[in-house]
Amino acid sequence: MQSITNGRSYIPLLVLILLFGLPPTAGWLYIMNPQWLPDKHKNNGTLVSPPRPLQSLHLKDGNNRNFDWSTLSGRWLLISRNRGVCADDCRQQLQALLQIRRAVGAERIRVEQLLIQEAPVAELFTDTSDTHAEDLNILYLDPDQLTEFERLFSVSGIDPGRATYLADPNGMLMMGYTASSPKKDILKDLETLLKASRNWTTGVNNGHDG
């Protein structure tokens, strides 16, 4: 009788572990094991395995303050990088990622768009007509962070010049896409991950619309 009572006392703890420990891994597990998904989805991007924590990269915001990655906790991140002036190809990429974010509809509140600028310039955009993307976060890289930056964003088979990267709501870099990756491929992966991780981030961003 004593052993049964002791066993039951662990049940609430096990329930808590399942509720709070299992959901954060759902998105990654689905991507690593696409056969678990009903539609037999195959990821279109290149997996970063194991995923890499972006918190080790120290960036600056537009006011030259240290950027706090925790401000984006609970959001899926669409990340692009740029050197020098954001010219036509850079602007087109930003616009494509903005369209992807809009295409997920109401789920866009769980997605943020980041541009990591590798070198400061006096005027980032030569034409501001369509570059001030909705909720675009522009972050700046200090020269002493270049080695760490290259380590994090080096993905086999992907030229970093106009690559797109996807990070999960814990700030882990998960996937990379080449410059030629169709927009619909990135969108399909993002939609799958948003669906798989819905319970994970539900409530995290309530009251904060993007």
TrEMBL record:
This is Thioredoxin domain-containing protein. It comes from Sedimenticola selenatireducens. The lineage of its organism: Bacteria, Pseudomonadati, Pseudomonadota, Gammaproteobacteria, Chromatiales. InterPro entries: Thioredoxin-like_sf (IPR036249). It comes from the Bacteria.
